[in-house]
Write a structure and sequence with these properties.
This is 3-hydroxydecanoyl-ACP dehydratase. It holds the Pfam family ApeP-like. The protein is built from two helices and eight strands, in the order E-E-E-H-E-E-E-E-E-H. With 170 residues, the protein is of the alpha+beta class. The radius of gyration is 16 Å and the shape is globular.
Length: 170
């Protein structure tokens, strides 16, 4: 990840223009605000939300993916700020050393705000602080480590194997 000079974006692009995910794995609904070192996104938990469980909602541990997708949106927003024609790029959630949750579930109908802040970056590696809030209540807090390769095509070409059981047709 590299810091770029920014032009002012007056309206936020659609989330699909910022994140290299497609339905059903594009989990967050929209970007509400972004700046040089932060982004705020939203999701409303619905019965059609990915990972929704009847009578409960979405497990709060899915929050780490909401935070990761908000970080991806931040990267996409920064790229579009520098070049409006920029396409989303692949990135990887490497993990977290600490994640706290104050609830077990995100309940149906709840509008969650996802806040991410760029804490550190060094070339392709980054560290972000993330929070998911219901109003003023922090439900999930985590600091995540991410990787965004500089040469996406080379990374994808070297990572594909024919032995990946998750994607190989039986």
């Amino acid at each position: 990840m590299t810091k770029a000079s920014h032009t002012q974006i007056t309206t936020m692009p659609a989330i699909a223009e910022l994140v290299l995910h497609a339905a059903p794995m594009l989990l967050i609904d929209r970007v509400c605000d972004a700046g040089p070192d932060h982004l705020r996104a939203e999701i409303t938990i619905q019965q059609t939300s990915m990972f929704f469980e009847k009578d409960h909602g979405v497990p709060a541990y899915v929050g780490i993916e909401y935070i990761a997708q908000a970080v991806a949106a931040y990267g996409g927003w920064r790229a579009k700020s520098a070049d409006p024609a920029a396409a989303p790029r692949i990135g990887y959630l490497l993990g977290t050393r600490k994640m706290t949750m104050t609830r077990d579930w995100f309940e149906p109908g709840t509008r969650l705000n996802i806040y991410v802040e760029n804490v550190f970056e060094d070339g392709e590696m980054g560290v972000f602080k993330g929070e998911i809030r219901d109003g003023n209540d922090v439900i999930v807090a985590a600091q995540i480590n991410v990787f965004q390769p500089g040469d996406t095509d080379a990374t994808l070409a070297t990572s594909h194997t024919t032995h990946n059981q998750e994607t190989t047709t039986p």
